[in-house]
Give the backbone structure.
Amino acid sequence: MARSSFFSRFSEWLREWDDSKTRQVLVVLLGVLAGLLLGMLVYTIAKYALDQMFPFPPGLYMIQGAEKEALLKTVAVQVFVSIPLTWAIGAFVGGYCAARIGGIGQFPAWISGILLTAYFWIDMLAMPSTVVLVVLCPVLVGLFAVLGGRFGMHVTAQRRLKAEA
């Protein structure tokens, strides 16, 4: 038996539309948006706390070139270690929330991870960063969004099994 492609199954699914599909799409959309919002909230709170503990030197955003490089060397290493960690935690929480609310698999977590990556890249434009952060952070966001989605689906499946028992 030949396996059909994603696109053929998707177009077949779209051919006959009913109220249950509308509800399913709305629940998935709600899951993605809730995951995105929660991931952004977790990241923003963690970033604010880290900015209070390890502030960037004054004037860092206003200078360019060699002066900026010299000032970046005075920034605590914890800042450049904590930025990817806050991204990862935000993506994990967002992916978990999206998968739990969506309830249909990891797909909502993937979409929220993609949207969180876009948000984090936009945020990175406003703060000093290194090439390692620009490359590492999107990979971490994707990985932790998928892990959050897997964990969310694991919890959902366990609760369904307990409810059926």
Remarks:
- The first helix runs from residue 6 to 15.
